Amino acid sequence: MNFKSIYILLLSIWLASPLVFAQKNTSVKLLTTKTEFTVGSHIVLKFKNVNNNTPLLYCSNSYGTTLVSGTINNLNLEYTLPENIAKKIGVINWKILDKNYPTSGKLYIKPKAEVATMETYIGPPSIEAGGTDYSMLVVIPTDSLDNPVPTNTPVKVKNQFLNSEEVDNVFTKNLIAFKNIYSKKQDGRILVSSEALGTNSKEFTINAMPAVPTRFKISYSSPHNYADGNQITNFTTSVIKDRFNNVVSDGTYVDFFIKNAEGNILKTSGLTLNGVANSKIIHPDHADNWSVKAYINGMAESNIITLNYKQVVKDFNVAFTNKNRTISVGPLQSFMNQMIPDGLHVKLYIYSNNQLVKILTKTTFNGYVYFNLKPAIYKNNNYNFKIETAGITKQFNKKLW
Amino acid sequence: MVSINKNIMRTVLLASYILLIALIVSALSGIFSYLNTGADRSKMLHTEIAKVEQYLPKMTWESLSNEGRPMDKENLNALQNDYLDAWYVKQIAYKTNKTAGIKDYYTEHARENLFEYIELNKKQNITIEATTLKHNPKLEFFSEDGQLAVLTDNNVKEYKRVFKNDSLVYETTEISTYKVVFLLEDGFWRIRHMVKEDEKDNTDIPQTSPLNNFKIKGINYYPQATPWKMFGDDFSADTINKDFKIIKNAGLNSIRIFIQYEDFGKADIDNNKISKLLTTLDIAEANNLKVVLTLFDFYGNYTVMDWTLNQRHAEKIVLAVKNHKALLAYDIKNEPNLDFESRGKDNVIAWLENMIVLVKSIDEKHPITIGWSNTESATILKDKVDFISFHYYEDLEVLNDEIKHLKNLIPNKPIVMQEFGLSSYRGLWKPFGSTEEDQANYHKKIQEIITNQNLQFMSWTLYDFVEIPKEVVGRLPWKKRVQGNFGFINQNGETKPAFKYINTIE
């Protein structure tokens, strides 16, 4: 062959090759021109088919991937997409699995403009009154096939509080719609609901709780101001409110700190009811000065009040009998010379050779206390005794025999 | 008679009563003890699940600028973990067509969508092996109470293999964008809605990075005492330095070393090993030697579910070495064609192809190759690698023809004979083996062919070894002995006659 004929041969092959390719590509030709479908429609992809074979169709959507077998109908190759693929929004990408005629494409499944359910989430469920704290309402409106609705679907957010009823319009974005609901100055319940395309959610409640308490006052009351170790002093707070004049929530914990004359701290506490907390403490059994301040931990505190308790037991007798082994203390008399009410503590310290041997504690009965020192425990010897009650101390040196 | 009958009757009745009562008591005690065994308290909070990394695609979060509550690190981490677990259980479910695990990561409504798919695919015997290699999530929304989140996962790189009746019908890599709504339920971030918003073809076409006129004249290297476990406890910088000097003085310019996948900690790379690797590279640089780094040695499981872990392994190593001056090239895998039969040829090739893409995405500077064990396989992925490597332990008579043939098939890329050699073992296990003279002749001859063909080369290997790990050639002593005698330097540290031909004779 001469050079010219080779050249012509090569040229003709080169020219013919795109024709071959073009023909190949048209063997399976998509007839379905629609690429957008409403969710839930019956989707059939039709192809013009020359070869009469039925390759598989690969298709994949938001949730998964599958293969669809084709059928031949009137010389067309048809693929009916499975229902579970047609009923979900998003992109479907497909491809004919035939190496010779690769045809592929995309379908867009559009959401329906309808709302079947209003999936609503609200939180936090309780917020602080005062207009700065807020709760967030998130709505996922979905259609009857459980698909989120199109972007920019209007959602009405309605709320009612005391005398005001408000409606706000928000729009879906990123598959959801949300709205911050702010508290007002007053405490109370905010009722919230939402609506999209005529479908309403159920009612939700946000609790606007009173804000942090502010400074408050305390007062006390008691039957008398004698230190009889028997009567009870009652502490009361004023009505505790937040800075917007809302009475604090019931059950707010109030601690009363009492500092006595020796600098020790006593504590009592109570819970508020209608803003007022009460707390009780028994009178001291000896003269004392108390200064009292109440706190709501970390939030608020009260003024300081002072209380004076007067001594009731001025003096008492101690008698040693029965080989000094029975010690009677009394009569212990109160402010009107009446016998002190039962239960006043009397302590007996027993020392032997300046070593503390034992502390015996008893409470008064009918104004007296008796200590019996058993010979089996306290051998015959010299002992020092210290008797302490109502803040008064007396000392004795006695021989037991 | 009457009284005997009566007694029998009584006995039977009495026995039956006792039996009945015994049965009732045992049944009641059974119920009672069943009711007393409650759920194990330690299992109430899912705290007992030991976290093993199963699925580690590349996650690149867009900077946080979401609506709603500001996101914190802990919550984002929990969200990411559960999101990846959701992908993982989905992949497993579609691979096996079973629903295990799905309900932990998809809400009651969302899981229906997966169940329907599984039912559909099960009926037609379709299974899908898939993985995601890259995610670029952007947090769109986080609710004030921290119970609901929305993210857009941009350009998720999904690799899928679709099987029908257990035969592969389609393999694809897709780049998709998803919008995902999560709800925090029972301590799990569960997917409520998932919408694929966009899909496009994979456009990851890696750049080529040529060898740049460097002509490889090298050798495969393991220290004599620690072959195949170079970076173990016996790592010695002095030994390596001494050996590199021998190699340099022999006139060679490069070495090939190996990174063992499990030894380096799989996806969770052991930093200690990395520092030993870097020390080795430093010593190579000091001796003016270039290094071909062979990744994934002793790795043999190419399953799609393993890919994300493999890629994290490669990523960390490449990141550690990519700016090192001694680095010459990456060898993705040593002799992967030997795994074709057991692991499936297309599976192995797909793995290699994706690994090349990954390594190139981190280091676009250094060339990549694959160390094929023979010339026939060397054409596989020839367009993806930067230079071709093959190993040759066959007859030298046909080597010339083989190389000519290979050059015809791949005219435009450098060809490196990356492993060759002859064992000089003749002894109890192989009485008619080659002698050291034979070995020297072999190297002399092959160097002639190398010169004639203008080949680049890396011979096997510097030393004779005593201990050969069973992973290399198995436990059989005749294989081990042979494998141990490929060196140019014998076990006593003396050069063998072949040492003269370690390099091309100029």
Secondary-structure topology with pairs:
The complex is a heterodimer of chains A (401) and B (506).
Chain A: H1 3-27, E1 28-30, E2 36-38, E3 44-49, E4 56-60, E5 65-68, E6 71-73, E7 76-80, H2 83-86, E8 90-97, E9 104-110, E10 117-123, E11 126-128, E12 134-142, E13 154-161, E14 164-171, E15 177-182, E16 188-196, E17 199-200, E18 204-209, E19 218-221, E20 232-237, E21 253-259, E22 265-273, E23 276-282, E24 288-296, E25 300-309, E26 318-321, E27 326-329, E28 345-352, E29 355-363, E30 369-372, E31 381-389, E32 392-400
Chain B: H1 2-36, E1 58-59, E2 67-68, H2 73-96, H3 102-105, H4 108-123, E3 126-142, E4 148-164, E5 167-185, E6 188-201, E7 217-220, H5 237-249, E8 254-260, H6 271-286, E9 290-297, H7 307-321, E10 327-334, H8 340-343, H9 345-362, E11 368-372, E12 388-392, H10 399-409, E13 415-420, H11 436-453, E14 456-459, H12 470-473, H13 477-483
Parallel strand pairs in B: 1-3, 2-3, 7-8, 7-14, 8-9, 9-10, 10-11, 11-12, 12-13, 13-14
Antiparallel strand pairs in B: 3-4, 4-5, 5-6
Helix pairs in contact in B: 5-6, 7-9
Structural class of chain B: alpha/beta
- Please give the number of β-strands of chain B: 14
> What is the count of β-strands of chain A?
32
Helix content of chain B: 25-40%
Largest interface: A-B, 38 and 47 residues
What is the fold named in CATH at topology level of the largest domain in chain B? TIM Barrel
Sheet with the most strands, sense and barrel status of chain B: 8 strands, parallel, barrel
Helix content of chain A: under 10%
Structural class category of chain A:
mainly beta
Shape of chain B: globular
Distance from first to last alpha carbon of chain B: 125 Å
